[in-house]
Amino acid sequence: MGLSNATAGVLSLVVTPGGDAEELSFRAPLRKNGKYVVLDYVKEPHTLPDGTTIALGLLGTQLDLVVDTSNTTGGGDGAMISDSWTALACDTDHALRLHRDENGQIYIQQGQWITTSQIYSPIN
After folding, report:
1. Structure-model confidence comparison of residues 122 and 59, the more confident one
2. Residue 90, burial from CB neighbour count under 10 angstroms (0-12, 13-18, 19+)
3. CA nearest to 18, candidates 2, 37, 32, 31
4. What is the pLDDT of residues 43-70, one digit of tens each?
């Protein structure tokens, strides 16, 4: 191994195999493609039931997780607030859900089961 400035203005490390140099081996999802190492990954986004898409993608030169909520039902982070009372917890008489108030604040809301109307009614 040695340092080289063969490319003008760039200092690089040169590796020259000697003797019985062992060939590098690769395991999926890494593979050798000519002189390059390639990472195989699913490039198509996964779409959740609410329309949120999640995919791996490049952020500059780095692999990153990309989450897109622009096409969700309800749009934006509002789609992350479920209308389902059973989203957080429930028993026979009570249930919890995330709720956004008129000021846009998100809090945990408790509901009580109303047998006559067959719905949960907010307690707080």
Report:
1. 122
2. middle
3. 2
4. 888 887 777 788 888 878 778 878 777 7
What DSSP character marks residue 25?
A: -
User: Residue 55 burial (CB < 10 Å; 0-12/13-18/19+)?
Assistant: middle
The answer to whether 80 and 48 have CB atoms below 8 angstroms apart is: no
> Could you read off the pLDDT of 76-115 as tens digits, one per residue?
554 456 666 766 777 778 888 878 777 877 788 888 888 8
> Distance between CA 51 and CA 71 in Å, rounded?
6
Give the span between the Cα atoms of 100 and 111, in whole angstroms: 14
What confidence score (pLDDT) does residue 57 get? 83
The string of DSSP letters for 47-87 reads: E-TTS-EEEEEEETTEEEEEEE-TTSTT-GGGGGS---GGG
Residues 97 and 102: their CA atoms lie apart, in Å, by 16
SS3 call for 19 = coil
